[in-house]
Amino acid sequence: MSDLVFLLLIFFMLTSTLVAPNAIKLMLPSSNSKTMAKQTVTVYINEQYNYFVEETAVNEEQLADMINTQLGADAEGTVVVRSDKSVPVQYVVNVIDAVNSINNDSGTNHKVILATSPKK
């Protein structure tokens, strides 16, 4: 019986390391902050300054529409921005502006959170 438990433990340890939580590889900025939130939508900005909403590439003009589509009927969703640390701040501000325009147009209260990696 203990052999079976040991084999199951090894199986789950191996399979959990194969799961890639982020399909888009980014070097996130470092922070000591430990803010956790239920993420409704994730927006990625890679080092080539391309926007991705849940792994779907979009341009800046489509950003607000795509985020609004992903948020659906949720009135208090959270948009997590996962931006490469080499990306200028203006690209992050563009995402914040898109969420603010959604909030103003539809009377919702969506929040934007910047994802970071832990400081070493």
* Tally of individual domains: 1
Percent in helix: 25-40%
Largest sheet: 5 strands, mixed
Q: How many E strands? A: 7
Taken as a percent bin, the fraction of beta residues is 15-25%
Q: Shape from CA axes?
A: elongated
Order of helices and strands: HEEEEHEHEE
The number of helices is 3
Query: Strand order across the biggest sheet?
Result: 4-3-2-5-6
Radius of gyration: 18 Å
**Structural class by helix and strand composition:** alpha/beta
Low-confidence stretches: none
Q: Overall pLDDT, averaged?
A: 81
The CA-CA distance between the termini, in Å, is 41 Å
List keywords for this structure.
120 residues; 5-stranded mixed sheet; two-stranded parallel sheet; 37% helix
Describe this structure in words.
By secondary structure, the protein is an alpha/beta fold. The protein has one domain. The chain has three helices and seven strands; from the N terminus they run αββββαβαββ. The chain has helices at 2-18, 63-71, 89-106, and strands spanning 30-31, 41-45, 51-53, 56-58, 78-83, 111-114, 117-118. The strands form two sheets. A five-stranded mixed β-sheet has the order 4-3-2-5-6, with helices on one face. A two-stranded parallel sheet has the order 1-7. α2 (63-71) packs across α3 (89-106). The radius of gyration is 18 Å and the shape is elongated.
